[in-house]
Every structure is written in C-alpha cells, then in structure tokens.
Design a protein that fits this description.
The protein has 9 helices and 8 strands. It has about 230 residues and is of the alpha/beta class. The chain has an 8-stranded mixed beta sheet with strand order 2-1-3-4-5-6-7-8. Strand 6, helix 7 and strand 7 (about 195) form a beta-alpha-beta unit. The mean pLDDT is about 100.
Length: about 230
C-alpha cells in the first residue's frame, strides 16, 4: 500500500488499523541509524550501491518513494529518530529489526538502542528487538535487557532451545514457508512466542493461527484485520 520502511508506510499501517509495525534499522557509513531493509540502495530508492558504504548526507537526499508510485515522490529514508517520533504520534508499538552488515553487528545495536531507550517513554508499548544476527541480539541483551528480544530465522536452527536460554529470548520469528505445526507446538511448549513472516494470504494466516502461531508479519494489515 506504500513504499516499505517509510513514514508513509507507517501512517498507512496505522490508518488501516495496525497497532504495531516492524521496521529495519541499519547503519550508514558514518554511523547514522536509518530505516532501510536491503544491503544496497538500488531497489527502494533512487540511489545505488551499499547503504553501509554511503554517508548519511547522501542517503538523506535520496527519493525512497517514486519507485513505488508517483504519489510517494519525495518520500525520504527515515532516521531512527524520525520513525520513533512517528510511532509515538500514531500510537504504534514497534518491532525493531537490527539489520546488520558483516562486522558491525554489535556496533549497530550499540548505536541504535541508546537512541530508542532515550526517546521511548515507559508508558508506551514495550518494543520488541529482533535480528537474524545472534551477535546483535546478544548485544541487545546487554544494552537494553528490559526490552524483549526475538531471533529471526529462515529455518529453525537445531540449537534454538539453547539459543533461547543464552540470549534470553521472548520470541522466535520464523519464515512461515518453512514452519511446521510440530515446530510451533515445540517452541510454544518451551515458553516462547512464535511469530511468522511475511504472511499476505488470509488462508495461510488462518492455518498458522490454528497451529498456535502468536502473531504474523504482513504487508496487508488492513486486509488481515478485516478477517481476524
């Protein structure tokens, strides 16, 4: 409905009835935390090359909306601070995924989490911090132990139960395509919430909820809320 990871997308999600959003926090070359998914700028902006190799000044000048549609021309890549302000004004809770690049896993957590801790008041919904990177989740455990953590995976790792204890996980965030009912039952039986991404078909969502999945990530929150 709107270009991903932009303020326009968060506003649209809220307008469609969502009360939580998921976004990707990543570092520019000069350690500014911006909201962006891919390693490279090409797909969702008019820039090119790796985000991690680009200075914030250049990132801040990019158009992150025109690729999606002319109505979004001029939409920018938000900073973490701008996103947090938007969530507060829209009444949204958030799941911040730490979108790391190799060698900067701890650096991202150490940069992004203090910003969020400082600006996000305790009377708002407690955020969820997640990542594919075990190092980033471990760093989050040290920096923001009061906020719950989730580990994201494409396929359930064999050592998930050990990781859950070591990293103090609250959620296990799975690619729904590779998830089985038995795995959901096992993870929930061990005390973890199970969240599945990215689910855009209501029939699949119904199946997952039937298995005991606690929450889904979706690109169509309005449609899902009309059904569930």
């Amino acid at each position: 409905m709107a270009p991903e990871n932009t303020l326009a997308s968060f506003r649209r999600a809220a307008a469609d009835g969502a009360t939580w959003v998921e976004f990707d926090a990543a570092l520019t070359l000069d350690r500014r935390v911006v909201i962006f998914h891919d390693d490279d700028l090409d797909r969702t902006s008019d820039g090119s090359g790796p985000l991690a190799g680009t200075l914030f000044e250049a990132v801040n000048a990019l158009d992150a909306g025109s690729w999606f549609g002319p109505a979004f021309k001029g939409e920018m890549i938000p900073t973490l601070e701008e996103a947090l302000d938007a969530f507060a004004s829209l009444g949204l809770g958030f799941n911040m995924e730490l979108k790391t690049d190799p060698g900067r896993e701890v650096e991202l957590a150490a940069t992004a989490l203090p910003i969020a801790l400082e600006s996000w008041s305790a009377d708002r919904p407690t955020p969820l911090i997640s990542s594919f990177s075990r190092q980033a989740v471990a760093a989050a455990q040290d920096i923001a132990p009061q906020w719950p953590r989730g580990l994201i995976f494409d396929r359930l790792p064999e050592d998930w139960a050990e990781l859950g204890k070591t990293l103090g996980l609250t959620t296990l965030n799975a690619n729904h395509k590779n998830l089985t009912r038995e795995q959901v039952m096992e993870m929930r039986g061990a005390g973890y919430a199970v969240m599945a991404y990215t689910v855009n078909e209501t029939a699949r969502a119904e199946t997952l909820f039937g298995w005991g999945v606690d929450a889904i990530f979706t690109d169509v929150p309005g449609e899902m809320l009309r059904v569930f």
